[in-house]
Specification:
The structure is a single chain. This protein is an alpha/beta fold. About 45% of the residues lie in helices and about 10% in strands. The chain has 8 helices and 5 strands. The protein has a 5-stranded parallel β-sheet. Helix 3 packs across helix 5. It is globular.
């Protein structure tokens, strides 16, 4: 079994040299992915990754995770397409519905009930994927060289290793977990084979 490790950087360096040193430290430690969270009070999540790509030619770069409520899907897809190109197709995306009420208040964005935010998340992810696919970005597992057989068990293992309460726990408590996994791996589902194969491009998931 192959594991990847990543580091989430929450610091806000005062200079470009400090940021470059942070990136080199993650690279020298042998990690696979450098990630930035999407929280107010920290750097924006995408532009620093472009600078990081000029420091390391090995690391992949990701966002853990984008607060969907802060982004317009069309404008996000435009941003992601550019960042993916400028990082050499090493970008990975994570999506979330947002949880820190204080950040919504700071941004002047209504803090709607979880169900409403999750509904918007469920609508936004396929829309962003559609726009990126139209722009030529690989967006499906088969286009990234990933196989369903290698990943099906990860949905069950994720519940055991995550300390945070996630959508997987919610599905389990409502008795829909197995149905969710079956739907993801069914013909036409997210893990169904795509029409193309390849590597690189933004990896997209919800969390």
């Amino acid at each position: 079994m192959t594991f990847r490790t990543g580091i989430v950087i929450r610091s806000t360096p005062a200079t470009r040299a400090e940021w470059d040193d942070e990136v080199r430290r993650v690279d020298d430690l042998g990690h696979d992915v450098l990630l930035i969270p999407d929280h107010l009070g920290l750097w924006p999540p995408l532009s620093p990754l472009v600078a990081a790509a000029y420091v390391s030619d090995r690391l992949r770069f990701g966002v853990q995770v984008l607060n969907n409520e802060f982004w317009n899907p069309v404008l996000l897809a435009r941003e992601v397409e550019a960042v993916d190109v400028l990082t050499g197709q090493r970008l990975e995306l994570g999506f979330g519905a947002g949880h820190a009420q204080v950040e919504f208040e700071m941004a002047g964005i209504p803090y709607d009930p979880p169900g409403a935010r999750i509904d918007r998340l469920a609508a936004a992810v396929p829309r962003v994927r559609e726009l990126l696919a139209a722009a030529g970005c690989p967006t499906r597992p088969s286009e990234l060289g990933l196989t369903a057989s290698a990943f099906r068990d990860t949905y069950h293992r994720a519940r055991m290793i995550r300390r945070r309460y996630t959508v997987l726990d919610l599905a389990a408590e409502t008795g829909t977990f197995d149905e969710l996994v079956d739907e993801l791996f069914a013909p036409g589902g997210f893990w169904a084979d795509g029409a193309r194969s390849g590597a690189g491009g933004p990896r997209m998931w919800r969390g």
